[in-house]
Amino acid sequence: MTDLTKLKIAEARDALRNGDVSSVELTEACLAAIDKADVLGAFVHKTPEVAMGQAKSADDRIKAGDAPDLCGIPLGIKDLFCTKGVPSQAASAILNGFKPEYESTVTSQLFDAGAVMLGKLNMDEFAMGSSNETSTYGNAINPWRRGNDDTALTPGGSSGGSASAVAADLCLGATGTDTGGSIRQPAAFTGITGIKPTYGRCSRWGIVAFASSLDQAGPMTKDVRDAAIMLEAMCGHDPKDSTSADLAVPNFEAMLTGDIKGKVIGIPREYRMDGMPDEIEALWADGRKMLEDAGAVIKDISLPHTKYALPAYYVIAPAEASSNLARYDGVRYGHRAKLAQGDGITEMYEKTRAEGFGPEVQRRVMVGTYVLSAGFYDAYYNRARKVRTLIKKDFEDVFAQGVDAILTPATPSAAFELGKEHTDPVEMYLNDVFTVTVNLAGLPGISVPTGLDKQGLPLGLQLIGRPWEEGDLLNTAYALEQAAGFVAKPTQWW
Amino acid sequence: MSIDIETAARVAKLARIRVEDDALPALAQEFSNILGFIEQLNEVDVEGVEPMVSVEPMRLKRRKDAVTDGGMQDKILANAPDAREGFFAVPKVVE
Questions:
Q1: φ, ψ for residue A463, nearest 5 deg
Q2: What counts of helices (H) and strands (E) characterise chain A?
């Protein structure tokens, strides 16, 4: 077989079971592709030895006839996941040298299912960013370019390495995490599929915490079917995460019928933003038409508090981050600053955190500290949590009116240039304008590539589902994918 | 809302992040921009609205208050920048 790395998970699964290919062959092909793609900055810690060991075990398991769907499938793992004995540093200098003594629940579930880890993937530092430019490893780069223009574009963020690796066929799928759009925005920027499940579907245990009430893990894959397969393996109750839901995980792949006749799809008027590019507007209208042609009922809806989602997020997420990141004190793991004569423990904390955290992380920790400080807690933090209640209620109201899923653009633009000076942090925050509501409301959301812009860059649409109904959401996404017929791939230049 | 330099310095101190004096004016300006953006929340009528405490309405699981793990001092200390004689070592705290 040729071009093994271009296989989708479902295709590779079938080929492995038929004996057409071995996991060792598949893994070797991916490792070779990764070595040729260093310029993309996607893989930041390669783990060929782990991968080959897992691939050999997977081949034995497949021969023995005991092969779960992911058995023998080579994946990339976002650096935010703790992986035993392998560097896991959330793309932060403060975790330099950190090798966990334990495995995150999500990665152990993947490995128990026989998946192969090729290495760790680049990301924004502590998942704070929308362009992968805050990483201590340097930028991840989008394999897509504007035609023949060789300007380096962002793969999005924070799961930028995951998006770049999957789009460039360095791995068959990758894990991502999503706090405000960090799976869906990079998926849209790179022409791949990414789903953030309902809050509580995936255990957060062993994933470096950013904002605990918003963080969720999810898969980033080449199509909707692969997302269904990989999500199923990642989900499930975990006693080690008290917010993980004790609910049965359905066979998501079996729910992909493509039949959405009579499903009610809401189009929220508040997502039509001032200054939205015509191409995004047209993409959205096309998606609406595709779902209508597939038999869905289109309904115009209102989510009145949408405008307040980003400001609420930029109170709640930094507040939780300031608390979660208090643990990086130079005592138990990672970096500790060199101290001067006479420096005490306070100087150790302050110097360690100044050296170890990048500017965006420092900014968010300090904003979080401010909004939680005495005298401001009610004005900022409690007000934001009340607004969050209203944002969630907006969704509950439309679901109560019979809406099954909501269609929106995934991002306000296509992938943008790396290295532009960002003078105003708020400008970067606007990338998450369509995705962040979903995290605040705890809902499942999926980004599906549906078109290319004038310059040949991929664009995606987002579907938002009811809580715990990822299966139904994936099926609607599958119908959209079938109708859109998006098959474009970046031209290999690396 | 505008953040002055003293407030920026106080927040940095509370967050235990060293910020040099010459970096404070720019930091104060960034805070002001971000807080200006957040101020939009004041437009929302939140009278009688409960602050969200749980993302999905479910009861947190209880577990037995029992020791389930332990006896791994070497693993706990394995990543410490400075570990001595089975302890995390830090600069002198008490004179």
A1: -115, 135
A2: 15, 11
CB within 8 A of A396, min separation 6: which ones? none
CA distances from A256 to A229, A414, A463, A468, A470 (A): 11, 28, 15, 16, 11
Q: Within an 8 Å CB–CB cutoff, is residue A99 touching chain B?
A: yes
- Please tell me the distance from the alpha carbon of residue A422 to that of residue A124, in angstroms, as a whole number: 15
**pLDDT tens, chain A, 494 aa long:** 569 999 999 999 999 999 999 999 999 999 999 999 999 999 999 999 999 999 999 999 999 998 999 999 999 999 999 999 999 999 999 999 999 999 999 999 999 999 999 999 999 999 999 999 999 999 999 999 999 999 999 999 999 999 999 999 999 999 999 999 999 999 999 999 999 999 999 999 999 999 999 999 999 999 999 999 999 999 999 999 999 999 999 999 999 999 999 999 999 999 998 888 899 999 999 999 999 999 999 999 999 999 999 999 999 999 999 999 999 999 999 999 999 999 999 999 999 999 999 999 999 999 999 999 989 999 999 999 999 999 999 999 999 999 999 999 999 999 999 998 777 778 788 889 999 999 999 999 999 999 999 999 999 999 999 999 999 999 999 999 999 999 999 999 99
Q: Residue A236 CB: number of other CB atoms within 10 A?
A: 18
| Contact between A319 and A434 (Cβ < 8 Å) | no
Residues of A in contact with B82 (CB under 8 A): 336
Residue from A88, A369, A433 to probe the interface with B (highest B Cβ count within 10 Å) = A369
Question: In a 3-state reduction of DSSP, which class is residue A447?
Answer: strand
| A83, A128, A370, A385, best to mutate vs chain B, most B CBs in 10 Å | A370
d(CA A193, CA A410) in angstroms, rounded, equals 11
Identity at A420, one-letter amino acid code = K
Cα dihedral B30, B32, B35, B37, rounded to 10, equals -80
Nearest-CA neighbor of A395 among B41, B45, B52, B39?
Answer: B52
The catalytic position among A92, A130, A131, A158 is A158
Residue A360: count of CB within 10 angstroms of its CB: 18
Hey, are the CB atoms on B78 and A385 less than 8 Å from each other? Answer: no
Q: Give the alpha-carbon dihedral of A123, A125, A126, A130, to 10 degrees.
A: -60
Residue A272 identity: R
Helices (H), A45-193: 48-63, 105-112, 160-167, 184-190
Q: Is A245 left (phi over 0), alpha (psi -120 to 50) or beta?
A: beta
Read off the pTM.
0.97
